[in-house]
Amino acid sequence: MTQASISFSAGSADVSAVNDIDFLKAIEWERGADPDMRAAAASGNVSAFVAACQARTRNAAESPTTYAADILWSQAAFPDESELIPLLEEAVGVSSKPRKGPRRPANKTTRNFAQRVEALVYALTGEPQTVQTANAAYALAASLELLTYAGGRLRSQQYWRLWRYSLIQAIQLAQDLAADVDPTVPNDVRLLERGEVPYVAGLLFEGILGTSQLVKTSKKTISRDLVNHTDTDGTPHADLVERLPLWLAPLIRLTRIARAFDVRLWTRDQDDLLRSLVERAIPLCRPDGHAALSNGLKLQPLPVLAAAAETCGLPELGSAGSYLRSVKRVVAGKSPARTRNDGVTSMPSNQSDFARFALLRSDWSVQADSVALAHHRRYPQLDVSASGRPLIHGDWTIKLNIGGADVELAEEWTCVCWQSDPDADYIELQMAGPGKLRVERIVMLSRNQRFLLLADSVSGVPHERIEYSSQLPLGDNVQTRMDTPTREIQLTMKGFRARAFPLALPQDRVLSTPHQFTAEDGHVTLSQVTEGEGMFAPILLDWDASRSRGAAQWRTLTVTEDGRVIGRDIASGHRLKINDLQLLIYRSLKDTGNSRSVLGHHTWNETVIAQFTKKGDVDPILMVE
């Protein structure tokens, strides 16, 4: 009878039923393998082999990070593994479940680590089968992490049970993973399966035949994933943002484990890129501790972001570090940390054409106004926080019917303009339709006036009937109220009030119009109908506390060219006044080669957003040529 062979270099037979002595003897080794481990395996001496393994682990990781079950960062990616979660939490002495009933007297006979992990070890190894694990990769990652950080603290029997199980599963997983990547598998799950697990297994089982190649291959996978999914400034691609904490988790775990084994995972450039990625990820954590643009997925980004900041050496007094510290305090029910105001030298805003993502943000405080915008799909996704409160979250939809035919939208939008300065952040997205049709989406966030402009511009239409509708998805806790005399909509939360104004619609409800501005089913909907070559559909949201109850007045302005009035399908101007704030919003829909005049302001620009001074002069906030 041929003896079984165990290695990562070739297909191995099923050795799950082989006794421990024969199992050890079946292991094939590389040159340079630890001589004590190799000798113990050759003789089938389990006790000596475990002692050699634990000694090697201690020597390889002289100052390892305390075992904290960092695999818990990825629990939302593996919902079928929920039964493992309380066992992992018990192993590190924490619990996500709130205490119920009266506090019981403290137990003076506190269990040691080996006792706390006993149930976890048995659950992971499946004997007895106390937990059904639907995904082998997640359970295996948990096993490898436990061996790496706490192998020396396990009882000999626990260590051997977990080591043998992990080796069999790691070899099996390496064989089962097909060369072709399943496009339906999320990037974070694929990174854990094809990058983290084989890399950590290669380090932990170093010396077994095939582990050197396993480390090299998985390292390439990990590095390629980091580089291919981030821009050069660290901005993550939009298709990662809704699961960004889950994708970041394996990268940080791997960085920490590589350091524990004193091996180099990243090049210097990749180290810098990872640090930049963490800096970009931190402001995407809302002040309530939830992840921006998470699309309903219940994520807890704070633990992985805190570990990432520490791992990448971000200073606590820096902008990103201070913001993260403030969020942690707010989530814990404390007052936020004081944020250093360093002007424009470290603006939190950024935009990436490659990533199809932009972050507009007023400052680094937890009371900041921000707009996270991903535009890699048919509908751009918005995540708007106003004074630190989640106001809008989800797809910014649009429906367009021209001449009785629905317009088929492209699958993604292109950024055609980005501007960020001390007054405002501005981004303009474009979707080209059939013929000369263009649809542009405009987002402008004031950096110091607490208002946001969201607008759609439709142009290049061959003078047809245009029916337009868009929806803004409101946050879970936002309540709406329609103003009775006007078309204003009020958006409220406890201690917060915002106002939404449809600037292209008549202010007074008594004025009949085919347009509509409504709020129901958690959405604000704007519908406009017109005849012509184009249209402009702006919504302005204002949440400044000093203007929350001030009388608002808005109207559509007359635009002239060479002394004659031109139609709104050629150029559109609007004015809004709330207390001392008076805004002018102008948009050219068709270039005729001539300058225009609106409310006494002459311009050649395509877009003008300006504020009137007390003397009545126009003070531009933003102008786009």
Features:
625 residues, alpha+beta, eight-stranded antiparallel sheet, five-stranded antiparallel sheet, 15 helices, 27 strands, elongated
Layout of strands and helices, then pairs:
Layout: H1 20-25, H2 35-43, H3 46-60, H4 85-92, H5 113-116, H6 118-125, H7 136-150, H8 156-176, H9 187-204, H10 211-228, H11 238-241, H12 244-260, H13 268-281, H14 301-311, H15 319-331, E1 350-352, E2 357-361, E3 370-374, E4 381-386, E5 389-395, E6 397-402, E7 405-406, E8 414-420, E9 424-432, E10 438-446, E11 451-459, E12 464-473, E13 479-482, E14 489-493, E15 496-502, E16 516-520, E17 523-532, E18 535-542, E19 552-557, E20 559-561, E21 564-565, E22 571-578, E23 581-588, E24 596-598, E25 601-603, E26 607-612, E27 618-624
Antiparallel strand pairs: 1-2, 2-3, 3-4, 4-5, 6-7, 6-12, 8-9, 9-10, 10-11, 11-18, 12-17, 13-14, 14-15, 15-18, 16-17, 19-22, 20-21, 20-24, 22-23, 23-26, 24-25, 26-27
Helix pairs in contact: 2-3, 6-8, 7-8, 7-9, 8-9, 9-10, 9-12, 12-14, 14-15
